[in-house]
Design a protein that fits this description.
Layout lengths: L5 E3 L7 E2 L1 H6 L2 E2 L7 E5 L7 E7 L4 E2 L5 H15 L20 H4 L11
């Protein structure tokens, strides 16, 4: 990617946008390659890099279909289900724990949870 034009942070010309900026406009890159990049210098580490896409080549976001909505709901439900007690935790279970908080850190005074 050495042939890409590089711009300083906040100095990109009009007609370019990041993925988030495209999404806010209801667009998506649509298979186009990265057109340019932004670099924000930092003192002790390498620069922050943001990739830019051409707005004129961007395509509209695909509409949410009922099947896609159902698949997304199923995937989110799986992220909330504790693998140990098989209950819906009501929140996305942290990957650092791997289980819901009561299963990860059981209180000895509480009775064991039944499945």
């Amino acid at each position: 990617m050495g042939a890409l034009p590089v711009y300083r942070w906040r100095l990109a010309p009009d007609g370019y946008a990041t993925r988030r900026q495209l999404r806010a406009q209801g667009l998506r890159p649509g298979g186009q390659d990265v057109a340019a990049q932004l670099e924000r210098p930092r003192r002790r580490r390498g620069p922050l890099v943001a990739y830019l896409y051409r707005v004129d080549l961007a395509l509209p976001v695909r509409p949410m279909t009922p099947a896609r909505r159902a698949a997304l709901a199923k995937a989110n439900a799986a992220r909330r289900t504790c693998p140990a007690c098989r209950r819906d935790a009501g929140y996305v279970i942290p990957t650092s724990l791997g289980t819901c908080v009561p299963c990860a850190d059981p209180d000895p005074a509480d009775p064991p949870r039944s499945v």
